[in-house]
């Protein structure tokens, strides 16, 4: 039989066929599939026509299965099981999975989140790993290949689903050996600062924020990564305006402390992005839950 012929058959009748084969009774089969006895008799007549076989024949007070019906039992049972599995969705067992998850995470977030996320994945899914890609540019086709991204930039990942992940704000990072003697904002901004200008950027977002308020700071050095800025603060008299989570994670080990900025600022909300088509994907759902739990810890 070719695939084109399948349309002439009613596959919905296979469940009734299996009920009749297993029970050997039209009446009991009708009860199993919740139809009336006359309806089941009509179904049997249709099945006999489709298969070209009586399937069940009268034998004394009961019904007897034909050899054809006996032969159909296992294939029909397997087919119905496979059909049911289509509706259950693909299961994901992290303990047995072998999977590479591609992600885009800015270095300032990776500095505090990547290590605990890798440790959590090693515990729960030892056969899986995370591959970070270089930070994408707008309309970069690589964005469509990502399993997830973490960013404050809702425009860059506009085609992806997003959910709030965590909030952050900026503080002034200062070496513990350097006294904070600033009496006002302008004195603080006149201290020698190290700015962070990442790849593809033309300025530090901090300076854009200050400029919008009619302020500017004295920049003594520019680096491309936030950890480099923090290390500069730890080993020099430079200061830096950095995210609070970064300073909290590394400051105590580097003898760097945080000073509140006496300047009004908005919260930096970081979002977890994922492709729309992976909303219900079991592996993606598990991964997003792992990231949320890791951030919460």
> Looking at CATH, which topology of the largest domain would you report?
D-Maltodextrin-Binding Protein, domain 2
Separation, N- and C-terminal Cα atoms: 58 Å
Rg result? 33 Å
List low-pLDDT spans.
Answer: none
**Major β-sheet strand ordering:** 4-3-5-12-6
Number of strands: 12
What's the story with the biggest beta sheet? 5 strands, mixed
In percent, how much strand structure appears in the residues?
15-25%
Number of DSSP helical runs: 10
Which CATH-level-2 architecture of the largest domain? Answer: 3-Layer(aba) Sandwich
Order of helices and strands: HHHEEHEHEEEEHEHEHEHEEH
Structurally, the number of domains stands at 3
Structural class: alpha/beta
What features would you describe in this structure?
With 297 residues, the protein is an alpha/beta fold. The protein folds into three domains: 3-88, Arc Repressor Mutant, subunit A, CATH 1.10.10.10; 99-166 and 269-296, Periplasmic binding protein-like II (D-Maltodextrin-Binding Protein, domain 2, 3-Layer(aba) Sandwich); 170-266, D-Maltodextrin-Binding Protein, domain 2, CATH 3.40.190.10. Helix content is 41%, strand content 21%. It contains ten helices and twelve strands. The strands form four sheets. Strands 4-3-5-12-6 form a five-stranded mixed sheet, with helices on one face. Strand 8, helix 7 and strand 9 (219-223) form a beta-alpha-beta unit. Helix 1 packs across helix 2 (26-32).
